[in-house]
Amino acid sequence: MSYVEMPGAKVPIRMWADPATVEDGALRQLQNVATLPWIKGLAVMPDVHYGKGATVGSVIAMHGAVCPAAVGVDIGCGMSAVKTSLTANDLPGDLSRLRSKIEETIPVGFSMHGELVDPRRLHGFPTAGWDDFWSRFDGIADAVHFRRERAAKQMGSLGGGNHFIEFCLDESGAVWLMLHSGSRNIGKELAEYHIGQARKLPHNQGLVDRDLAVFVADTPQMAAYRNDLFWAQEYAKYNRAIMMALFQDVVRGEFRKAKVTFEPVISCHHNYVAEERYDGMDLLVTRKGAIRAGSGDYGIIPGSMGTGSYIVKGLGNEASFNSASHGAGRRMSRNAAKRRFSTRDLEDQTRGVECRKDAGVVDEIPAAYKPIEQVIDQQRDLVEVVAKLRQLVCVKG
């Protein structure tokens, strides 16, 4: 589909979704965002749903301003995927050992590494810039400096919620490795600190929603936020790179006879800010639950833990600010999913996938998410499908 345009106070709202299927709370949030004095454009992805301040699945382009709550608390959250030389014919019938090895190697949930991971010892890890990255820790907000050791030990760990590590097959029978994670606790604490700072600023007192408080250009608060934001986005990128290197080592060890090789890793943020230029104007583009889909950009759009995922290539549609959806998108809250579904439902909906099937992940049941095929179909003018994957193993926190 192409987009549906709805009127907004300052800019039209371009929706790659049927407005009739979007919950009232999310529609109100979109209208609220369209009232911001600094806004220059608003694009809404097919996985749109209610969030904090701004909806998940929205692309907010502003001139001279950025809204920290619209980035979200998991700064730099995103996806990584890599195609391997393994095929379905190389795989054993039981993948439970592989799942156990992944869980032994990569901490999940609130866990972290007991010893710091040295990326220089990892196969193929891009170490350029690593020392410079950590040297800049002292330059981020004083409020989080006491978290340095925790941040270092969480580097290369998954977290919980909707984060996952998957071992997948594409339709040709090739094996892919895929994972979803972000900036862990350090990103969350930086986000919460800056959201609190933005709410205190005088220019934000008259906003329709205090969660839409912004920092504006040429102020110390904006400079401090941009510094911390871009550092946290780097943290998230390194976090995924370390996990992917560890994951590849597990796969090499489990399939020694196959002498596994890997294609270049595809990686993309979906909660972040980028400096981009549209219609001759420099803008700060916030993608909250959206990926960049510029012409030729590779991206990853996952479904849920039982429905498969897509590798895509961007078509460079400037009406969406070169963006596409970040996943299937929730169609019910976590609490609603827990009330409605049981572990038996989870077992039924994840049949054939080696994964947790206990009460702790019922809120991640596939039925809590929108149908991924429908979400992909609604953005055919934003991306083309390169590969469709189905998971064989799914590790969750």
Write the layout of secondary structure elements.
Elements: E1 4-6, E2 13-15, H1 24-33, E3 39-49, E4 56-62, E5 65-66, H2 68-71, E6 78-87, H3 96-105, H4 130-135, H5 148-154, E7 164-170, E8 174-181, H6 184-199, E9 215-216, H7 220-254, E10 266-269, E11 271-278, E12 281-288, E13 290-292, E14 298-302, E15 309-314, E16 323-325, H8 334-340, H9 343-349, E17 354-355, H10 372-377, E18 383-396
Helix pairs in contact: 3-7, 6-7
Please tell me about this protein's structure:
With 397 residues, the protein is an alpha+beta fold. 27% of the residues lie in helices and 27% in strands. It contains ten helices and 18 strands. It has helices at residues 24-33, 68-71, 96-105, 130-135, 148-154, 184-199, 220-254, 334-340, 343-349, 372-377, and strands at residues 4-6, 13-15, 39-49, 56-62, 65-66, 78-87, 164-170, 174-181, 215-216, 266-269, 271-278, 281-288, 290-292, 298-302, 309-314, 323-325, 354-355, 383-396. The strands form four sheets. Strands 6, 7, 8, 10, 14, 15, 17 and 18 form an eight-stranded mixed β-sheet that branches. Strands 1-2-3-4-12-11 form a six-stranded mixed β-sheet, with helices on one face. A two-stranded antiparallel sheet has the order 5-9. Helix 3 (96-105) crosses helix 7 and helix 6 packs antiparallel against helix 7. It is globular and about 60 Å long. The two termini are 35 Å apart. The model has no long low-confidence stretch (mean pLDDT 96). InterPro entries: RtcB, RtcB-like, RtcB-like_sf. It is an enzyme of class 6 (ligase). Residues 323-342 are annotated as: Disordered. It comes from Streptomyces lichenis. This is 3'-phosphate/5'-hydroxy nucleic acid ligase.
